[in-house]
Amino acid sequence: MRQEYIINACTGKAINVMKGQTITIIDIEGTQVVDFFAEAKENPDEFLSTGVTIDCNESLKLKVGDLIYSNLYKPMFEILLDDVGEHDLLHPCCRPEMYDFFYNNGNGHSNCLENINNSLNSNRPIIHPVNFFMYTKINTDGSISVEKPISKAGDKVVLKALMDMRIGAAACSVSESNCNGGKCSPIKIIVSE
Q1: Mind listing the pLDDT tens digit for each residue in 80-128?
Q2: Which is nearest to 73 in space by CA: 54, 88, 89, 91?
Q3: Phi/psi of residue 100, each to 5°?
Q4: What confidence score (pLDDT) does residue 113 get?
Q5: Which letter does DSSP use for residue 152 in this model?
């Protein structure tokens, strides 16, 4: 069984996945960030945690073979394939307050926090997703800068689900910076056995 989902620019979608299924996340046009979040199917209070993922992998970077963990320190996903090798574990979902802080345009701005919350029928005050394809440069002095993603059209990341989950994914809405290369575009997710 194979299911394909297109997530249009600046929107989000919920996708049910079962343990053992493969999730392929494709950057259709290139330089598009995917805010990727998940919660355990039977317990939404268990959810993807980038902080725990950093802790368990002892790294600010993800690589093939790494696991993505829940807030309860349980493995949720294994990374099977990665065409890009540059993803962000630091930034929370964009939200109206972020747009106000940086660009003074938060009112009514499409954002990943609301897109993921709406897709999952939840109301989380903040979400720390894995930002696939987002390039956050980490400098030796501890400062960071968001650079243009290095992903090209068709680049992908492939994950294996290690529990039954509901994924909330969004095609990031930031066009005001280098985050999505200055332009928002759609993404594709394929779930297969």
Answers
A1: 999 999 999 999 999 999 999 999 998 989 999 999 999 999 999 999 9
A2: 54
A3: -65, -45
A4: 98
A5: B
Token pair for residue 146?
A: 């968001």
In whole angstroms, give the CA distance from residue 30 to residue 164: 29
Residues of the chain with pLDDT under 70: none
The residue whose two tokens read 């079962």 is 18
Say if residues 169 and 34 touch (Cβ distance below 8 Å).
yes
Tell me which amino acid residue 40 is. A
CA atoms of 119 and 187, how far apart (whole Å): 16
| CA 78/CA 80 separation, integer angstroms | 6
Q: How far apart are CA 92 and CA 101, in angstroms?
A: 14
Q: Is the dihedral of CA 107, 109, 112, 115 positive or negative?
A: positive
Picking from 189, 179, 164, the residue whose alpha carbon sits closest to that of residue 88 is 179
Helices (H), the chain: 50-57, 96-103, 112-120
| Amino acid in the structure at residue 151 | S
Q: How far apart are CA 85 and CA 81, in angstroms?
A: 9
How many CB atoms within 10 Å of residue 59?
12
Q: State whether residue 20 is helix, strand or coil.
A: coil
Residue-level pLDDT at 143: 96
